[in-house]
Fold this sequence. Notes:
The chain has one domain: Rossmann fold (3-Layer(aba) Sandwich), CATH 3.40.50.720. It is 45% helix and 19% strand. The chain is an alpha/beta fold. It is built from seven helices and nine strands, in the order E-H-E-H-E-H-E-H-E-H-E-E-H-E-H-E. Helix 6 links the parallel strand 7 (187-188) and strand 8. The chain has a seven-stranded parallel β-sheet, sandwiched between helices. Helix 1 packs across helix 7 and helix 4 packs parallel to helix 5.
Amino acid sequence: MKPILIVGAGPGLGLSMARRFGRDGHPVALISRRPDRHDAYVSSLRADGVTAIAVAADVTDPDRTRAAVATVTDRLGPIGTLYYGPGAADPTAHPVPIDQTEPHHLDEAIRALVRPAVDLTGLVLPGMLDHGAGTLLYVTGLGAVVPLPMLGALAPASAALRTYALTLNAALTDTGVYAGTLVIGGLIERGDIHRHAVATFGPEGLPTLNPDEIADSAADLATTRKTPEKVFNALT
Length: 236
């Protein structure tokens, strides 16, 4: 099995994805901004019999992204699966609503969400095409498919990432490489934003999603390749 690169290695969905694909035999490489968490994540995965490494990088920096991917491929070999699901830089932040959104808000959202996806794809896709096999999975928000004004600039940025993933899926037909998107509408249990919400509002009535169930669906998408998209909606 070729390695999976987990971009956005947080305690919620990122770690669930690592466990799920690791259970299938994929070596796991974690990338996140938080190196202070990496030892615990790697130890936990290795205790479950998963080959795992972690690299610290802010993927909004193309140079650091390139260096991180090079480190992963040097240690584990060519990447067979890219999972792109970076978390929020500040889990406590609230986006400016769409009717107050200014151009710089959209620029920031595109830079944080869409640009890194394109950078990472450009680094791993050529190798996948050379081998005639590979999987690209992109996480985006429910604002990509449902009007959610409170998400502000995150909504059009999410829509752009979704369109990128779906268009890649169409472009890669018959190449052996699959691209798909997971559309997430809700608080990922065990994730940083969920923990902040529980601490602020209490656990009752929050629109939560189980990351293990999402990871199972992601593995199914990658295996069956019957559809380019799966929507998880606990919000509407």
